[in-house]
Write a structure and sequence with these properties.
With 480 residues, this protein is mainly alpha-helical. The protein has 19 helices and no strands. Helices cover 76% and strands 0% of the residues. It is globular and about 60 Å long.
């Protein structure tokens, strides 16, 4: 961009739009226990106020990326902000659980904004300026969550649950002002086809899968029906994969998974996201358990918000440290060590959680480990695939991250429901231990995968796939 002043305004505008995505992430986990109290519902139902936004974000990320990969990117961003604003207004109204879920689903659309604004930064800044702006926008999403947690907690503490969800009104409103003022028109970009069928199939399959997970415990449905729903979800995912591979312009380019390194990185991020979110979504429930319960710590929603701040701060720090470590350490070694840090946090939660300060430590360690994983895995992908398909490969990795969050959220609620006595609200303490054990098993699997991959790499020199193989898959660079 030639005009320095307009460049600065655009950079500021992109940061504020990025903060919207961070704010929508901040309005989830800390508020779930408050939803239980205010709406007088079971945890499994309240957990959907978190799960549904993650689910919508997972589906909308590739959809928005494709819609924005053309001449209408400005309008796609602005429309998304209006949707988030509408969802925020709906969530602030006392319309019961259904109204809140619809509002949270609309707010979840904002989770797909990050890829769009990074694309704007890459296209409208050059050289070192582009690198700085992309870095700032990327950091905003992570660091903003850390500051957003205590803000959401404070608003909920002093103004009530629905007012906390109203933070989205302020954030989306400010972002819209900056968006209309600074976002460039890009009519020269080529319009691309949207795979609506693929998006619908993916959304339905994930929704059915998450619903089945939440119905494992405490459901009025017969067990055979729950199993059938889960089986239908998995079958639909298989059909979706086959459908996507036949499309000339698919929603998600699955051809990148033919590269063993990409498959390894995607699998690791998916599993690590599930394990991490089991801890994250469960710990906020645990610390807010009233002291009248034997194990209760009685933390306020404000304190819980501050407890999650170390997660984002140390996660951000890890993302800065990983590039330095990569100069002397292999990516697989970094990933194994990082997963080990997450494993320590889960073991710590399983064994030592009677004091609030212990919870701060375990959450902080989880942030450090997962932050390093999220920094090292994309670097591993970038170094293993042709440059022209990097966007597709990284984009799918981000989608799997959010799908992992969604599964971890739903699974944690289901496990706790299994350990909740009939007629009781708080689960038994061993329910939290059970969640930690499941997380430990999942992270242990990721460490085993990483070590096996490292051994194979040492035995055999890596043979990168050539451009020809990827060309046969029809993989392009402009979409997920």
């Amino acid at each position: 961009m030639g005009n320095t002043q307009s460049s600065k305004e655009l950079a500021i505008g992109l940061v504020f739009i990025g903060l919207v995505s961070a704010a929508m992430s901040s309005l989830g986990a800390p508020l779930v226990p408050t939803v239980v109290k205010v709406l007088h519902i079971h945890l499994a139902a309240a957990q959907w106020t978190l799960t549904i936004s993650l689910l919508v974000g997972a589906v909308m990320t590739p959809v928005l990326a494709r819609l924005g990969d053309g001449p209408h990117r400005r309008n796609v961003i602005l429309t998304t902000l209006w949707v988030v604003l509408a969802g925020s207004v709906l969530a602030t109204l006392s319309l019961g659980l259904i109204g809140l879920l619809v509002g949270r689903a609309l707010q979840g659309v904002g989770l797909g904004l990050s890829a769009l604004i990074i694309g704007v930064a890459k296209d409208h800044f050059v050289g070192s300026s582009a690198q700085r702006v992309v870095a700032v926008v990327s950091v905003t999403s992570l660091a903003g969550v850390g500051f957003g947690y205590p803000i959401a907690g404070a608003v909920a503490e002093f103004a009530g649950l629905h007012a906390a969800y109203g933070i989205g009104i302020v954030m989306a409103g400010i972002a819209l002002v900056f968006g209309y003022r600074t976002l460039p028109y890009e009519r020269h970009r080529v319009l691309r086809k949207l795979d609506i069928t693929g998006a619908g199939m993916l959304g339905l399959a994930l929704a059915l899968l998450l619903y089945a997970l939440t119905q494992v415990a405490g459901s009025t449905l017969p067990r055979i029906v729950v199993v059938a729903i889960g089986a239908a979800a998995l079958a639909l995912l298989v059909v979706w994969v086959r459908y996507e591979r036949r499309q000339s312009e698919p929603l998600v380019h699955l051809g990148t998974l033919r590269h063993p390194t990409v498959l390894f990185a995607d699998s690791l991020v998916f599993l690590a996201s599930i394990g991490m979110y089991l801890l994250l979504s469960t710990s906020v429930r645990y610390v807010q358990t009233p002291t009248t319960v034997v194990y209760g710590l009685g933390a306020s929603v404000l304190t819980t918000g501050f407890m999650l701040t170390p997660f984002s701060v140390l996660g951000f720090a890890a993302s800065r440290i990983v590039p330095i470590l990569r100069r002397t350490t292999s990516d697989r070694q970094i990933l194994a060590f990082s997963a080990g840090v997450v494993l320590i946090s889960l073991i710590g939660f399983a064994c030592l959680r009677s004091q609030l300060w212990q919870m701060f430590i375990w959450i902080g360690l989880a942030g450090l480990g997962i932050g390093a994983i999220y920094a090292a895995a994309p670097a591993l992908i970038i170094s293993s695939v042709p440059a022209r398909i990097t966007t597709s490969a990284i984009g799918f990795n981000q989608v799997l991250r959010m799908v992992g969050f969604s599964i971890g959220s739903a699974l944690s609620a289901s496990i706790l429901e299994l350990y909740t006595p009939r007629g009781s609200t708080p689960p038994l303490s061993k329910g939290y231990t059970a969640v930690a054990i499941v997380g430990i098993a999942i992270i242990t699997l990721t460490i085993g995968m990483t070590m096996l991959s490292y051994v194979r790499q040492r035995r055999h020199s890596a043979i990168p796939l050539g451009e020809l193989q990827f060309a046969e898959e029809g993989v392009g660079s402009g979409s997920l």
